[in-house]
Amino acid sequence: MLKKDLFGYWILAIGYCLVIVSWSLVIPIVVFAKDAKEPNVAGAFYPKDAGELASDVRLYLDNARGVKTEGKPAVLIVPHAGYVYSGPVAAYGFKAVEGKTYETVVIMGPSHYFPFHGASVYAQGDFRTPLGLLDIDAAAASTLLASGKGLIVDEESYFEQEHSIEVELPFLQAVLKPGFKILPVLVGDMNYDECLKLASLLAGLSAGRNMLVVVSTDLSHYKTYREAEDYDARTAAFLKDFDTKGLWDAVAYTGWNVCGIRPLIAGMEYARQIGAKKCSILKQANSGDTAGGKDRVVGYLSAVLDIPRSEPGAEVQGVSATQNDTGDSMLTQADKKRLLEIARETIAAHVAGKPLPVFHESDPGLNLKRGCFVTLRENGNLRGCIGLFSSDEPLYRSVQSMAVASSSQDYRFSPVRPQELKDITIEISVLSDPALVDDWKKVRLGTDGVIVRRGYSSGVFLPQVATETGWNLETFLGELCSQKAGLPSDCYKDPGTKIYTFQAEVFSEEESAR
């Protein structure tokens, strides 16, 4: 009898040990799963059941008919209310990118529950929806946090109750090809200039990266149906005109409701900086049209801001954008002088708070459709530098836009003050399209600008950087990798790293004065 009891105790003890071992194997899995951000509003703003959610999203998308885009979508503007209210409108925006491939999708939405200054990035892990997990682009988040110190923060707690980003995710999962990563950016309180700085940070992040920006915002809040129609129509007019300052002055701190005004301003300015020329309003309605009464409604809008497609045959691969096929410059000395004058007059007016001068130029060189950078130096030191790699605008207009941006929107510097103008010199770089090279040794120091990219990290140097620093090729590429891309300094030798070169015709006020 005693032997039987002892045997039973041994069996029981072994059983407890097995239970303990099994739990020790499970616990790490549970802890690891905490990296996933669980949904806040599944079952409230949209269905919690995966099958029901997928069916609803598909129905909204199928009902969004006639959506066409003329170029490459760079920014989507979509609403973020409960699906029964805003889903029929949001579907039009997401329909514009259905079947497309992006590597990084930045989703910017306003913070509804936590007041804070700046923008908060969810920097690592995953976001979970009933349709599955979406990976955070940790490399892009790291780049944004490093470049946006003072404006961008890493604070996950701000996302705890927020819905403005979450409700866009199931639509993205339904329309985009798999493989993309997301970068959630929650926007708190910012002034207008800080919104422009955020735009410049995103523009820098997008260099060499196939990136889509989704702006999450509703429009008018709790007005009558007719009042909402009036307010929202005027908001749409500002969007079509890319008039960020006009929209800001009309909306911010007034009774004209656009809850995501700050991410909206940043998204519009970002689109302009990377070459978007058109804002197409795809659908506009309010809750009185979808699933509510007409006494107190909320307005919704879907829009796409796209980059024009390059004209066939407009560029010759490997030939400078400012040269013809014989290698001769297509910009005359008079063209260069005029572009510098346009930049100078524009900056002088802008920093003085005056209306920008209006130019009408007919010379062929000034009407080339080329990317450009405008660089400002004060007593020889860098004071601002912003540009576009491509543009569908005449060159003189692109130079004017970049002159404004370099003097007031480079996040590394404060805006230029009028008293500084006498000490500032202007340099303009007119660019060719980037071309992929198969060997880093083919980079021509002082001739080629370079974009280096590995995974989701990238960096850019203009051609003149090599001349100004005196670096040899390996130092030039090593500094590009480490300084600009945040990669190991020798990563340019890795076959998995992509290297693009472009050329630039560079001219400055200093040269023209000689």
From TrEMBL:
Signal peptide: none annotated. Keywords: Membrane, Transmembrane, Transmembrane helix. Residues 334-514 form the AMMECR1 domain. The chain crosses the membrane at residues 7-31. InterPro entries: AMMECR1, AMMECR1_dom_sf, AMMECR1_domain, AMMECR1_N, AmmeMemoSam_A, MEMO1_fam. It comes from the Bacteria. CDD domains: MEMO_like (cd07361). Pfam families: AMMECR1, Memo. NCBIfam families: AmmeMemoSam_A, AmmeMemoSam_B, TIGR00296 family protein. Belongs to the MEMO1 family. This is MEMO1 family protein BU251_05150. It comes from Velamenicoccus archaeovorus.
